[in-house]
Design goal:
2 domains; mainly alpha; single chain; MetI-like fold; 262 residues
Length: 262
């Protein structure tokens, strides 16, 4: 049974890692077409991401949108989660439920809703701010959940002790609550950043053809053929995702985020 278990785990690991290995090999192909095994070895397709103006502009747009939308999502989620946890306010709990709701809906429905909204309110459609707001709203559930988990892990006795020592509510928040909740807020930020960086449907529907993110650029480039630069971007995305999730595991309470009870 032990041999069968290791055999099953090996096959499962190969199933997960195999496509990544193939894409990584294709990204090193020297010729201007995808081939496996690669025809020669070259890093030119990785450098093209930063040298070619169209690919670098798409990369810059994606990073800017992911950074701003993740920051906005955390900025909205933190006071809502804190109000629901600290004071048990009814409207805070209602906002908490509303914040989770968009993430439950299929992205295409949210994308259509954002399209109708931004085309009807003025000249916002087609600008970076539209996709930043759309991604922040769509991904709001992630920091709401992670920050709420962090706040629920706080021992109320710490708050009572700090208040007994004369600390006001602002001081308690700054010195007790925020340091404990900060790693969970970082986890929510990181999750939002990764998903925003890879999101395609909402970005396409909210900016159209006026702004290209990397996922939009990839789909547009497919009309002109398959080049190894697409594989190199896929490898870059995998590397970014692994790095960010490693940082979450290092600086946040990953067991708590995944549902384990302390």
């Amino acid at each position: 049974m032990k041999v069968l278990r290791w055999l099953y785990l090996s096959i499962f690991a190969l199933y997960l890692i195999g496509p990544i290995v193939v894409i990584a090999a294709v990204s090193l192909n020297e010729k201007r077409f995808m081939a496996f095994p690669p025809r020669g070895v070259s890093l030119r397709w990785y450098s093209e991401i930063f040298v070619a103006s169209d690919w670098f502009a798409a990369l810059t747009n994606s990073l800017l949108i992911a950074l701003c939308s993740a920051t906005l999502a955390v900025a909205i989620a933190l006071p809502i989660a804190y109000g629901a946890w600290r004071h048990g306010l009814r409207y805070a709990k209602a906002l908490l439920a509303l914040g989770v709701a968009p993430f439950i809906l299929p992205p295409v429905i949210m994308a259509l809703a954002f399209l109708i909204l931004f085309t009807s309110v003025g000249n916002f459609y087609g600008s970076l701010i539209t996709v930043i707001i759309a991604h922040a709203i769509f991904l709001l559930a992630l920091p709401l959940v992670t920050i709420s988990l962090g706040l629920e892990s706080i021992d109320r006795a710490l708050i009572e002790a700090s208040q007994t020592m004369g600390a006001n509510e602002r001081t308690v928040f700054r010195t007790v609550i925020l340091p404990i909740a900060a790693p969970f807020a970082f986890a929510g930020f990181a999750f939002c950043f990764v998903l925003s960086l890879n999101e395609y449907i909402i970005a396409l529907m909210t900016v159209g053809a006026t702004v290209e993110t990397l996922p939009i650029k990839i789909f547009n480039a497919l009309r002109y053929g398959y080049t190894p630069v697409i594989a190199s971007i896929a490898v870059l995305f995998v590397g970014v995702n692994i790095t960010i999730f490693a940082l979450i595991a290092r600086f946040s309470n990953l067991r708590r985020i995944l549902g384990a009870m302390d």
